[in-house]
Amino acid sequence: MLAKDIKTGTVVVHDGNPVIIQGISVQSPSARGAATLYKFRARNVVTKNKVDITMKGTDLLNEADFVRRDVQLMYTDATHMFLMDKEDFQQYELPLEDVEDQVGYITEGLEGMRAMIYNDACVGLELPASVELAIAQCDPGVKGNSATSRSKPATMETGLVVQVPEYIKEGERLKIDTRTGDFLSRA
């Protein structure tokens, strides 16, 4: 897989170890003919250590051999999230610190959530591209401000805070992009 094609959440092999990509920054060249650099912030799947990888866009990384299984949320406690495989009903646990940036998108009954299984252990989650969440708290829009495209913060049912347009009201269901955390549309 080319470095320029790697997305957040992809699991690749780096130095013989599987790592999950958690963040990407692109550094454009300042000189003519120089290569664009891709800087990846990753976490080693086995040891949980953070790894920084810098590559040119044409460099190659192999995708790790993982099994992806459809799962559903059973429950969470103070330290772990418990998931159940939809096919064979096997249960997996995942530390909340490993999925802290994804917890705000996960609800009971979320369809399309997949667990990444490596050596019979759940090492990460893949979420669908967008999820539907209800607004738990949102300030009312100010009358007369509809001419401008201003936004306001809205707290979703999971505690996630999303910037939404002023016309959105409390209690509405919204589509939220799980990759960027942006408001997409009403559901």
From TrEMBL:
Gene3D superfamilies: 2.30.30.30, Nucleic acid-binding proteins. Pfam families: EFP, EFP_N, Elong-fact-P_C. InterPro entries: Elong-fact-P_C (IPR015365), NA-bd_OB-fold (IPR012340), Rib_uL2_dom2 (IPR014722), Transl_elong_fac_P/YeiP (IPR020599), Transl_elong_KOW-like (IPR013185), Transl_elong_P/YeiP_cen (IPR001059), Transl_elong_P/YeiP_CS (IPR013852), Translation_prot_SH3-like_sf (IPR008991). Keywords: Elongation factor, Protein biosynthesis. Transmembrane segments: none annotated. PROSITE patterns: EFP. Residues 131-186 form the Elongation factor P C-terminal domain. The keyword Protein biosynthesis applies. It comes from the Bacteria. Residues 68-123 form the Translation elongation factor P/YeiP central domain. One of its GO terms (molecular function) is translation elongation factor activity. Belongs to the elongation factor P family. This is Elongation factor P. It comes from Neorhodopirellula lusitana.
